[in-house]
């Protein structure tokens, strides 16, 4: 007999979600993770809409092109089912940084002002690994 | 090879409330596949039979990941180039079958809304398999490539009309995940409910998603009716086996098993009897 | 090379101004993003730091008029323990003199993409920032 394990834990990928689109029976559920990605994309789109808000003394805000790339990156990572970032911020030098924290492990995807992308992993604030991510 | 006809262990109903079944496979993006190929593929089918087409929005990939595979890692492949991709829905003349195709997905629907009796999984699978093979043949002949499946997906859509196993929201306990509220009718009376449940198919082979929706609208036969729309979708990542398509077949069979068995387990005895449960092996 | 006539004592408190506009400090979670210490292409000789010996927190928070700022509080000896130099740089690029101005030379425009800077930024934000004060309105 098939048994089911009810996902009663606080896992980020399970719990109440909202039906977003029902296209002829292909159920597209928005999980909590996807909602978090949507909020990230909304924040980035907000920067596109009002880039003036990011101007500050000594700060170089990301260009429209970099913000658009960050949005595309968010869409792709969401589609692939990767965990949503805890935060997305400008780096003050024309780039954008996505950060995910999980206990003592912190990971950052850094989109530089020239469009290159790098993944850094920290354990308890110590840099463990840093890799340039190729664009397919 | 999984025997899709092996349903001796599965609950079987005389009159299941199922109105739609969708079998699908998600595959890796094909770089050479363009929107124009959707039309060419349609043209390669028997247009007397498959004569009704409709454009639909592209559905982005959706992966059932578990914590370890969802973390960012240095093997991430980032494809940022955007394409104006489309999905094509192709119905047959009787409008009881539909093929849905886009770059990264292939789905086959049995549509019971036209009033037809449910034709059973084995038949739906046979038609899905045949249609998928036609699609693969089309891709190979056009030198577009072949599909690399990365996820299987199966959905059962049930319509449970008011007046069948329920008459008012207080009766919704026929579905064991809903417990009628213990509240005085002088204070508040139940009116409606919509919700989702998510289960892991162990051990991390995929997920079962169940969506409950109280609907007042057009039913399976097109008339105004009040009903519960209960949608069960099982999805899982393709496992590496000797044949990728064996994995798809096995995945769909697992998904079907989970959906059908959970349906029976989650319904009350009275409801199961109403739908003509035949081989109750418990 | 810093101004050696006015060295920075180990006990000296240091301030790093954090523009609220960038979202680097989350008041709700009290988390400080390492981007707060990331050098940009204009940081020729190091990122700027304010000496607590010569300015108050509120003075350190002053920036563009109408904008909001937080202030990260650090201690010179903590930075020294991590091998981070604090150099007194009272002469500003525009020629003016500000005794409170100092810099962290190890974080500058030339090495801003290096592993070393990636490491130092994170340590500064997560380990060496003692508290974040504010917000203050400029």
Structure description:
The complex is a heterotrimer of chains A (136), B (282) and C (138). Chain A is of the alpha+beta class and 136 residues long. Chain A has one domain (27-133). Chain A has two helices and eight strands, in the order E-E-E-H-H-E-E-E-E-E. In chain A, strand 2 (18-23) and strand 3 form a beta hairpin. The N and C termini of chain A lie far apart (44 Å). Residues 1-28 of chain A have low confidence and may be disordered. By secondary structure, chain B is α+β, with helices and mostly antiparallel strands. Chain B has two domains: 10-21 and 152-282, no CATH class; 29-60 and 84-147, no CATH class. Chain B has helices at 35-44, 67-70, 121-141, 244-266, 269-274, and strands at 18-27, 52-57, 86-91, 97-102, 105-111, 149-161, 194-201, 206-218, 224-237. Chain B has a nine-stranded antiparallel beta sheet with strand order 2-3-4-5-1-6-9-8-7, with helices on one face. Chain B is globular and about 65 Å long. Chain C is built from three helices and eight strands, in the order E-E-E-E-H-E-H-E-E-H-E. In chain C, the strands form two sheets. Chain C has a six-stranded antiparallel beta sheet. In chain C, strands 2-3 form a two-stranded antiparallel sheet. The mean pLDDT of chain C is 94. The chains are: A alpha+beta (136), B alpha+beta (282), C alpha+beta (138).
How would you concisely characterize the structure shown here?
The complex is a heterotrimer of chains A (136), B (282) and C (138). Chain B has helices spanning 35-44, 67-70, 121-141, 244-266, 269-274, and strands at 18-27, 52-57, 86-91, 97-102, 105-111, 149-161, 194-201, 206-218, 224-237.
Q: What is the secondary structure topology, with strand pairs?
A:
The complex is a heterotrimer of chains A (136), B (282) and C (138).
Chain A: E1 5-6, E2 18-23, E3 26-30, H1 32-49, H2 64-79, E4 87-90, E5 96-102, E6 105-111, E7 117-123, E8 126-133
Antiparallel strand pairs in A: 2-3, 4-5, 5-6, 6-7, 7-8
Helix pairs in contact in A: 1-2
Chain B: E1 18-27, H1 35-44, E2 52-57, H2 67-70, E3 86-91, E4 97-102, E5 105-111, H3 121-141, E6 149-161, E7 194-201, E8 206-218, E9 224-237, H4 244-266, H5 269-274
Antiparallel strand pairs in B: 1-5, 1-6, 2-3, 3-4, 4-5, 6-9, 7-8, 8-9
Chain C: E1 13-19, E2 25-26, E3 31-32, E4 47-51, H1 57-60, E5 68-75, H2 76-81, E6 87-88, E7 101-104, H3 115-128, E8 131-137
Antiparallel strand pairs in C: 1-4, 1-5, 2-3, 4-7, 5-8, 6-7
